[in-house]
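Give me structure tokens for this 365-residue protein.
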Amino acid sequence: MLRVGVDSTKLADAKSADVQVEPARRFVERSAQLGLDGVFFRSILELSPTLDRGEIRDAVQAASDIGQRIEAGVGKVNPFATPEAPAIRALGGGDYLLAMRRMIEAAASEGIRELWTATANYQFRLSGLYACDRFRTDVDWDEQLAATEKFLRKLAPILRDAGVHLNLETHEEITTFEVIRLVEEVGPDVLGITFDSANVLVRCEDPVAAVRRAAPYIRSSHIRDVALFFRPEGIARLLRPVGEGVIDWALFLEPLIGHDLMLSIEGIVESTRGEMMAQLFDERWRGAHPDLTLPEALEVVRLASDYEARAASGDAPGWEQLHEPLGHDESLQFIERSARYLREILACLTQSPTAPLRNSASGVL
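Here you go.
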């Protein structure tokens, strides 16, 4: 069954709600008010900063009482990225592996068995190639992947004993090919995939081909649409509500029908629409993507061309419009419009799986 939920980090108005109510409860109550099915907490520490089992249990029970699903995350698993999370290391008294064990076991003890993780970071305060950890010069990406696999193998028995899946995100620095290889090498009994529909385009992957490739291992998700623009450095991605960007959602969702999966809408906050660049015209960028295929790269080029044509005709917001400051209610509207479109298209898919559906922005549903 496909449910429609929301990522807690982007549900901005819940953060400023009644301060007398515990934070996790505020989020699930706000999700229910919006007609959504649950909350994807990026960290189990959002349920209890100290991993208090009683606090986590209370949050899970509060969600269950109003029909809400809770998913959560733990720390990142690339040892070259973990120094950027000192709070997690502190949970283990300096022992990061112990901290991960404690988070995994605390989540599992209260029935949270699908846990998010990711491999690296994106430095939004920077621009250009080196904003992405994939292009670090102090450690090659292949070395980062090897270290990540080694650490995941240390986590595997912990995950197995807890009956938990650790779900690697298709984060902005890693390709679906690489995520799938990690899952298959360490074991799909303990690893899965958190599929982010917008991030795969940063690696110049066709989102429909990418989701089909990853579908057997997808156990959680981040869902958003994108606008694409040609820039001197390559193709820029900016976030759009589901159905208002370039992704063909009927084709995208088709391989996920039948999954027990929450489609967690990850919206926009803090005056940013998540601009990132697939630096396709940079030889260094291309050389760092040995799995890049010409058909998928050309499909991303086609999607960018189509979006720019829509923007030029006034059927979609253009580059300048999407660089204007966020409107007062835009973050909330992003979630509401995305949820409405997802529910409409899911209803169509389950009623007539072969019906020809396209994005609402194209005028056909």
